[in-house]
Amino acid sequence: MSYVSQTLAKGERILKSATFNWTYSVSSFLWGVFSILPISYLMFLIATGQDIPGQLPWVMGLSAVPAVLGLFLLIAHLIHLNTTEIVVTTFRFVYKTGLISRDTKEVSLNKIEEISLRQSILGRIFGYGNMTLRGTGVGVITLPNVDRPLKVRQIIESAKAKLRGPTAQNLKDAAPQAAVVIPMEELR
């Protein structure tokens, strides 16, 4: 069960769970793949019985360092991806990271003052962008490479509008209600 699901208030529901765009993971996957290529090649040479340079232990040790580092970075990135929650509920925005330790940044929707979006040319092409939310009492929440950021922004703005209640135009169009008259004697 997710962190946000566990912390929902009565009557609160999840409107949107945002995710990172696939481009956010490209560099980690490339590091993971390319770092194991040298050791994979040496293992292939050993398995096929081909001629191997005379300094095999030194070469194996040297190629194992980037393999271990690359796999470590890839695993850390996968853990980060799977333990991060970016959620818009009917009352709040939640950004939670962490597996063992937890770091959450939450802001009530009615306290969000500004939503900034930065999309590069590649961001426009591949549908991602960096979002920055500024809220009263929270400061700044920065979200890297959010997938479909315009949709996330639209959902936040729609939820904020619902929290504000009826607009002035809606009140003007509504039928007038009968005034309640309270005698002065009851007010004393």
Summarize the structure.
The chain has helices at residues 3-6, 23-48, 56-83, 121-126, 149-164, 168-173, 184-187, and strands at residues 14-18, 85-89, 92-97, 103-108, 112-118, 128-135, 139-147. It is α+β, with helices and mostly antiparallel strands and 188 residues long.
SS field, number of helical segments: 7
The ordered H/E elements are HEHHEEEEHEEHHH
Global mean pLDDT: 82
- How are strands sequenced across the largest beta sheet? 1-2-3-4
What separation lies between the terminal Cα atoms?
A: 55 Å
The outline comes out as elongated
- The SS-based structural class is alpha+beta
DSSP E strands, number: 7
Considering DSSP H and I runs of 4 or more, what fraction of the residues is helical? Answer: 40-55%
Low-pLDDT windows of residues = none
Name the beta content range.
15-25%
The assembly state of the depicted protein chains is single chain
Most strands sheet: 4 strands, antiparallel
Report the radius of gyration as a whole number of Å. Answer: 27 Å
Structural notes for this entry:
This protein is 48% helix and 24% strand. It has 188 residues and is α+β, with helices and mostly antiparallel strands. A four-stranded antiparallel β-sheet has the order 1-2-3-4. Strand 6 and strand 7 form a beta hairpin. Helix 2 (23-48) packs antiparallel against helix 3 (56-83). The chain is elongated, with a radius of gyration of 27 Å. The relative contact order is 0.14.
Strands, helices and their partners?
Blueprint: H1 3-6, E1 14-18, H2 23-48, H3 56-83, E2 85-89, E3 92-97, E4 103-108, E5 112-118, H4 121-126, E6 128-135, E7 139-147, H5 149-164, H6 168-173, H7 184-187
Antiparallel strand pairs: 1-2, 2-3, 3-4, 5-6, 6-7
Helix pairs in contact: 2-3
